[in-house]
Amino acid sequence: MNNTVTLSAYAKINLFLDITACRADGYHSLNSVMQQISLADTLTVTLGGRGDGIALTTDSGTLACDEHNLIWRAARAFFAALGESRDVAVHLTKQIPMQAGLGGGSADCAAALHALNALCGKPFTTEQLSVMGAELGADVPFCVLGGTARAEGIGERLTPLPPMPDCTVVVAMGAETMPTPAAFRALDVLHDRFASRSPKQAAYDALCTAMDDLPTLARGMYNIFEEAVFPALPALPDRLQILLEAGALGARMSGSGAAVFGLFVSAADAARAAEALRRQGADVWLASPIR
Question: 142 pLDDT exceeds 80?
Fold first, then answer.
């Protein structure tokens, strides 16, 4: 059996993201539609003999390579579930920007679980890997499943959805960031800890009925975190405007930020948007939906 496997760890965007409640345990209940895109990190995983050593290397100078990294924790969780320990070496090549709302760490974690499962003869189903991943991060179950899905609860309850139409996804990220806990706190203040706010169920239903209609889908996209993040990071709504003026059918922030994205039918319009964003100092990636 080959003892090395290389996998792509795909980023995600949120086509819809709403908070439905603030829970007693301090977490928030979400209603989200997540979509994998072709922007990806790359993991090369090599399985060794019996042991418990985890050697993680990366081309990113700012990323922890110890137990604080989700890849490291994924390996520990996998072998604990397997009931045996093996030495493993992982090299991570980063492309997904960090603190972007694109699920890069969760994608890496999910890819590590899939890689180890393949190297060990697939002892676990995708559903079992998803349950394993839920203990590691809220977005990990979706990244294990992939494609297009509704996420509820804190992200662990997934319902596959029809794939969105092909398009070009322009993703832009500047130097500005806002920590996710700060974004949640700001929303709690804006909405009185969601004591009386009604979830945007009608908007979600409308988006889901338009999954095969790109213009309607793009117009129906929504992200509640924009209410908290845009006042603090005014460059982000400016980038959305650049995307829309260049021909995006719709544009939103992903997750709690700070990356934004636009959906384009025309590759020429997408390229023009990318160039305009780069002139404004943003890093830009062109991607496509993963079906």
Answer: yes
What are the distances in angstroms from CA 38 to CA 146, 181, 227? 11, 27, 28
Using CA atoms, how far apart are residues 99 and 87, in angstroms rounded to an integer? Answer: 30
Tell me the two tokens of residue 139. Answer: 């977005």
- The residue behind tokens 């110890």 is 66
With both helix axes pointing from N to C terminus, report the angle between 70-82 and 126-134 in degrees, rounded to the nearest 10: 120
Q: What residue ranges define each of the domains in the chain, with the CATH number in brackets?
A: 4-160 (3.30.230.10), 168-287 (3.30.70.890)
What's the pLDDT band for 1 if we cut at 50, 70, 90?
low
Q: Using omega within 30 degrees of 0 as the cis cutoff, is the peptide bond preceding 258 cis?
A: yes
Taking residues 97-101, report their average pLDDT: 96
Angle between helices 70-82 and 104-119 (to 10 degrees): 30
For 160-189, write each residue's pLDDT tens digit.
999 999 999 999 999 999 999 999 999 999
Active site residues: 12, 139
Please tell me the pTM assigned to this model: 0.95
User: Do residues 14 and 36 make contact, with C-beta atoms less than 8 angstroms apart?
Assistant: no
